[in-house]
């Protein structure tokens, strides 16, 4: 199947599910039904991207459910082999309902979702709610790209994000496991992660990671420290360039196979893109890549 066809299928699926959740009446033809399901008959989504559930926020949601009930049904699909209902959308609501002591929960029962569709819905629902940690989001993007063979640009469009946001999130997966764990724990922010990515040398990166944790560096301080580490010995650090711009330079250099400079002032919305080449043959190759 072509990438374009997959993209259209994913877009149509997401739109259909949004309509289902916003208007939980049975669809024409009886494809989907709304019913009360025993909590004991429901199992989590195998493709759930969320690895950390905040206990305090779950308790708050559970209290709200006790007082006001569940205001929005979850979405499930029936697994005849297990005789269980697997969650597609709404695992936080399901967990909070369990905490609230509910024995039944209202759900939209979807009859026709395959594994890829379930994965896409679980990932995008969480990503669009913006309550995943940076590594969960990055792993979600990566999983969607692998399963649906879509580009970062297509994925950004589906998720309502910028191409830069998707690209920067995916680059966090290049960080060592210890730093990724800190991002998941919330001991450092995504901005700190981007600053650490500026340092290519593993030993220097590890040293900066230890320093920013010990001294509680702000993101801006971490960026300045990263630039200082990467500057040649004895050479003063040039005027700082926003980390997003550095990220774009690195990405373009990888894609084009040549040196790329982005020159901009404080207003990063405007600037100059400089692409270096050493021969007409190399220029021809770069032009071919740009045309793609």
Topology diagram in text:
Layout lengths: L2 H20 L9 E7 L3 E2 L11 H14 L5 E6 L4 E6 L1 H9 L4 E7 L4 H15 L4 H15 L3 H8 L3 H9 L5 H9 L4 H8 L4 H14 L3 H12 L12 H14 L3 E5 L6 E5 L4 H12 L1
Parallel strand pairs: 2-4, 3-5
Antiparallel strand pairs: 1-5, 3-4, 6-7
Helix pairs in contact: 2-3, 4-5, 5-7, 6-7, 9-11, 10-11
Notes on the protein architecture:
The chain has 292 residues and is an alpha/beta fold. The chain folds into three domains: 3-159, Conserved hypothetical protein from pyrococcus furiosus pfu- 392566-001, ParB domain (Alpha-Beta Complex); 176-238, no CATH class; 241-292, no CATH class. It contains 13 helices and seven strands. It has helices spanning 3-22, 55-68, 91-99, 115-129, 134-148, 152-159, 163-171, 177-185, 190-197, 202-215, 219-230, 243-256, 280-291, and strands spanning 32-38, 42-43, 74-79, 84-89, 104-110, 260-264, 271-275. The strands form two sheets. The protein has a five-stranded mixed sheet with strand order 1-5-3-4-2.
